[in-house]
């Protein structure tokens, strides 16, 4: 009887735990964000797995071409991007990021080693590869300065003097963003930034958003290179930022803004840009490419926007992947030839020494000996 009661108690505890787990999944926030705030339809899940952007800056104007990679089951979502001045918006070229990835890819090199390692005879097999605005009070709280349809995107360009009014306008027009957005938008409102609000959906009915989305290109006036990141504080999942910076010199971030230190993937001059990159920067006009990647394990710790400035020098950098190969001569390991050669020389030397000593050794003849 006591054993039966214990079994019933355990079964009840397991059942309660399962119920609690299900309830927790129902009330869990269902949004994440990339550079802006990304929110799916109610009851659906959508997260930004990766944010990749190319930023072109010439000292007066800035152009951001952004591609978000998302994962989830939402058929529709909304996203907002703050910008420091009036922006023009158009679809980006899908080829751009393939070209930038190819330009900044690691070079493959081979380096030889002399002595055998794991994977070489007579050892076991384990080969390794490794390497590096309107005035306050003079304009309505929210003003629509442009709206257009770009492929799968419904884009609205807005100004706002009140963050709560901006949030309410977005909600009224189908951009259902989290209440916390009003708080995160306040610094942008105080600095009189503008906003690009985007509603997106798959091109085919019945599909859900997933994988890399079509890139969007935003161009605006700016006397400093800034990449908006503050709204990423709302993300509930870790974020990865890949940033390609196109300027006259090598660029660096002013701080980590709460993420891991950015890693340099590439730095160097592209002498003759072509393809989508040439259309972005100007054909046959050299441009310096700096490729950075940064991981935000806890997005809520993001402190603000990225500001980038010129690095101390324009030293080029490119990652290299090395393949280690055993040094051979005519297909024969060099170490084996060397060791074999040394042993052969030693053997010959020993043989010569023995032969020489045998020749010099006196031979006793019959009748010779001590005098009688």
Commentary on this structure:
The strands form 5 sheets. Strands 2, 3, 5, 11, 12, 14, 16, 17 and 19 form a 9-stranded mixed β-sheet that branches. Strands 1-4-10-9-8 form a 5-stranded antiparallel β-sheet. The N and C termini lie far apart (120 Å). The chain has helices at residues 2-27, 95-103, 163-172, 181-190, 275-281, 334-360; strands at residues 37-40, 46-57, 61-72, 77-83, 87-91, 107-113, 129-130, 142-150, 153-160, 194-200, 211-212, 216-221, 225-227, 239-247, 251-253, 263-270, 287-296, 306-310, 317-318, 320-326, 328-329, 332-333. The protein is elongated and about 135 Å long. With 372 residues, it is α+β, with helices and mostly antiparallel strands.
- Residue stretches low in confidence (pLDDT < 50, at least 5 long) are 10-36, 125-138
Strand content: 35-45%
The largest sheet is:
9 strands, mixed
- Mean pLDDT across all amino acids: 76
First-residue to last-residue Cα separation: 120 Å
Question: What structural category arises from helix and sheet content?
Answer: alpha+beta
Task: Give a short summary of the structure.
This protein has 372 residues and is α+β, with helices and mostly antiparallel strands. 24% of the residues lie in helices and 35% in strands. It has six helices and 22 strands.
Reconstruct the topology from this structure.
Layout: H1 2-27, E1 37-40, E2 46-57, E3 61-72, E4 77-83, E5 87-91, H2 95-103, E6 107-113, E7 129-130, E8 142-150, E9 153-160, H3 163-172, H4 181-190, E10 194-200, E11 211-212, E12 216-221, E13 225-227, E14 239-247, E15 251-253, E16 263-270, H5 275-281, E17 287-296, E18 306-310, E19 317-318, E20 320-326, E21 328-329, E22 332-333, H6 334-360
Parallel strand pairs: 2-14, 6-20
Antiparallel strand pairs: 1-4, 2-3, 3-11, 3-12, 4-10, 5-12, 7-20, 8-9, 9-10, 13-18, 14-17, 15-18, 16-17, 16-19, 21-22
Helix pairs in contact: 3-4
């Amino acid at each position: 009887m006591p054993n039966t009661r214990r079994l019933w108690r355990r079964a009840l505890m397991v059942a309660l735990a399962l119920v609690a787990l299900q309830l927790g999944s129902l009330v869990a926030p269902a949004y994440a964000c990339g550079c802006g705030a990304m929110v799916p339809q109610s009851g659906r899940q959508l997260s930004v797995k990766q944010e990749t952007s190319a930023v072109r800056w010439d000292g007066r104007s800035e152009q951001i071409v952004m591609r978000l990679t998302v994962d989830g089951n939402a058929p529709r979502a909304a996203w907002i991007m703050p910008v420091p001045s009036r922006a023009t918006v158009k679809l980006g070229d899908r080829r751009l990021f393939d070209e930038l990835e190819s330009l900044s890819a690691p070079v493959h090199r081979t380096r030889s080693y002399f002595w055998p390692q794991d994977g070489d005879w007579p050892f076991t097999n384990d080969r390794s590869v490794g390497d590096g605005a309107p005035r306050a009070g003079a304009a309505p709280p929210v003003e629509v300065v442009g709206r257009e349809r770009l492929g799968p995107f419904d884009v609205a360009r807005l100004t706002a003097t009140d963050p709560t009014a901006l949030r309410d306008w977005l909600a009224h027009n189908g951009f259902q963003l989290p209440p916390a957005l009003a708080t995160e938008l306040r610094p942008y409102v105080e600095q009189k930034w503008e906003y690009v609000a985007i509603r997106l959906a798959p091109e085919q009915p019945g599909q859900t958003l997933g994988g890399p989305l079509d890139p969007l290109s935003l161009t605006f006036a700016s006397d400093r290179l800034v990449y908006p990141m503050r709204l990423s504080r709302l993300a509930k999942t870790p974020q990865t930022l890949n940033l390609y910076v196109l300027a006259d010199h090598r660029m660096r971030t002013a701080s980590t803004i709460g993420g891991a230190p950015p890693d340099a993937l590439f730095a160097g001059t592209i002498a003759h840009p072509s393809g989508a990159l040439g259309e972005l920067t100007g054909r046959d006009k050299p441009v310096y490419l700096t490729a950075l990647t940064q991981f935000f394990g806890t997005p809520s710790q993001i402190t603000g926007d990225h500001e980038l400035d010129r690095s101390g020098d324009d030293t080029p950098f490119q990652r290299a992947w090395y393949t280690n190969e055993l040094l051979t001569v005519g297909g024969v390991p060099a170490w084996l030839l060397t060791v074999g050669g040394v042993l052969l020389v030693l053997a010959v030397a020993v043989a010569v020494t023995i032969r020489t000593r045998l020749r010099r050794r006196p031979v006793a003849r019959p009748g010779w000996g001590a005098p009688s």
